[in-house]
Amino acid sequence: MSRIAIGAAVVALLVLGGAFLIQRGLPVVGGGPSATPGVSASPRDPASPAPSQPSSVVPARAPSWKTTGSMGTARAGHTAVRLLDGRVLVAGGGNGGAYDTSAELYDPRTGTWAVAKSMITGREHHTATLLRDGRVLVAGGIGSESDAPIPAELYDPGTGIWTVTGGMASVRYNHTATLLPDGKVLVAGGDRWPDDALDSAELYDPATGTWTATGSMLARRDEFTATLLGDGNVLVGGGTSGRPGSVEVYDQAAGTWTATGSWVTPGQTYRTATRLLDGRVLVTGRAGPDDHAAELYDADTEAWTATGNTVGDRRFAATATLLADGTVFVVGGIGSKPDGAGGATSYSQDSAELYDPSAGTWTATASMAAPRADHTATLLADGRVLVVGGGVLDRDVTSPELGAVTSAEIYDPGTGSP
């Protein structure tokens, strides 16, 4: 469970009815639809167009994918962060048990990849957080089969250099990292080698480069979700340890945790959480008794309600991305099919689907060119989504291994200029 070669563990988890998150991406803050930086508005028609002039309205296009070069390194369990200049920094990850130090930069203007300076320490299942000053904080992760600490690092896009910053008190991977309104980063939970889930939490202060302990969670959690709410507090739920169905909120002013309403489906462990434009939080990504369940959290009432069922197969190690139009884009992950002998075989998926908050429904959308899981999905400034790396499980192999890939694809939701 601690590296890319989690194939066997993942298969067992899925067969037993368990299952990932990650999300890890910055939440979109807003109470309703608003202009998105980097997304062009529809072109205006001339004030008095002549009858013979063609309309300047761009017709809607069907959602589509296109490949966009390949990275120089195959990786899964890595991180991807959109920098302030629009480029995407991809760092770390693993392949076949190797913990990678390498990093690469994707430029959406040219559709090309460039090698970036490598991290100081190789790691996977870490977190990467864009700070307010444009630097990127990489924290935690697993870099060796021991309980040895891995120092946190800062990437400076201006210089392209990585530097070591203060170290956390606890070794952790499969944790969460959330940028708070005051600019600090809340890191919570995760695993400590070998798979000892944590309830502790720490705060990183970019101004001083130091970590300080904050209140511990009410339950030990790993592979769980953390979402910044509109009031600056953090909603945390799920995990494969402790109380999987429990949910709690971190009060960023008091530094304390409080239990809030539990998920509707008992025993469910959702692996993605997305804050919608209206402030509600959508959780999905099967890990529990219901393969297709999804739920919504209302921070005002502290209540969860079931919403429409997903249309694809169960998804372990999938991604969920809030699009500019307010829909949620879920893609990839590991599914499961009967093996003909009373068991099940796991496989990576190429399928994708969209959740419409206004209707509370899911619909299938265009599929990727290649299946993948444990990948990253990054919203670009123009509204498209960059999907990078990940691992592949062959659905026709009885005991598949998760092998990392170098490929990358871009999902175009069908808006904007062709």
Could you characterize what this model shows?
- The chain is mostly beta strands.
- It has one domain: 6 Propeller (Neuraminidase).
- 2% of the residues lie in helices and 37% in strands.
- The protein has one helix at 7-15, and strands at residues 64-75, 79-82, 88-91, 94-95, 98-99, 103-107, 112-116, 127-130, 136-139, 153-156, 161-164, 176-179, 185-188, 191-192, 196-197, 201-205, 210-214, 225-228, 234-237, 247-251, 256-260, 272-275, 281-284, 295-298, 303-306, 319-322, 328-331, 334-338, 344-348, 352-356, 361-365, 376-379, 385-388, 391-392, 403-412.
- Strands 1, 32, 33, 34 and 35 form a five-stranded antiparallel beta sheet that branches. A four-stranded antiparallel beta sheet has the order 2-3-6-7, with no helix packed on it. Strands 8-9-10-11 form a four-stranded antiparallel beta sheet, with no helix packed on it.
- β10 (153-156) and β11 (161-164) form a beta hairpin.
- The longest helix has 9 residues, at 7-15.
- The chain starts with 6 loop residues before the first helix and ends in a 6-residue tail after the last strand.
